[in-house]
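Z., the sequence and structure:
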Amino acid sequence: MKEFDEFVSIMRRLRTECPWDREQTHDSLKKHFVEEAYEALDAIDRGRFDELRGELGDVALQVVFHAIIAEEERRFTLAEVFDEVNRKLVRRHPHVFGDAVVRTSDEQIRTWDRIKMTEGRSSVLDGVPKHLPALMKAEKVQRKAAKVGFEWDRTEDVWKKVEEETEELQAAVRSGDRAHIDEEFGDLLFSLVNYARFIGVEPEASLQRTVQKFTGRFRHVEERLREQGKDIHAATLAEMDALWEEAKHK
């Protein structure tokens, strides 16, 4: 595809002629990789597919940028990146490129996981990125464990675990032991993520929506205080709470 070849050519030229591009390393680009991925997700969430087109290009830029740096370091080439993913896709879809029979998406997931275990992994939990946001990582770890049967049978039992962890956190708070409080708070969050899976909620997305809702309501409070000629730093909690309720009803 000539557009892709031109894109790679542009990136190679930037790497040699642009001072900023020349200075970049795998480490320095990590934050940009994550940011571009989240910007693409934001465009999807808002249904802005005109923006998504550009954001996907930015994600592709990061992929090619890292590959070019790796080429310079004689680690691997851009061609090898695509060759490896091509072979992986063929290997993990034997029902498409071979004689295996897979009738449902659940069967395909199980087949995919079995094949991954033959590729040098020693644990079903291997492959969980350490840089994933904690809620997403907790959900991914739980799903991987559930695939081999390490799972509660009933939603009611999962909720009982949430209640148990809540009581343990309260006991830790009463004890004043900071390390214990931190541990029990993590346990409670982990159990809530587990419950979210059972009731069909994506915890990361759910919390993102709540943060967005809070942000919108708090901005309303700020705007209304400005309209009243008041400094938010001098406003009372009662004043802000009244405007918060106004935002909720609005």
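The chain has twelve helices and no strands. The CA atoms of residues 169 and 184 lie 5 Å apart.

Let me know what you think.
H.
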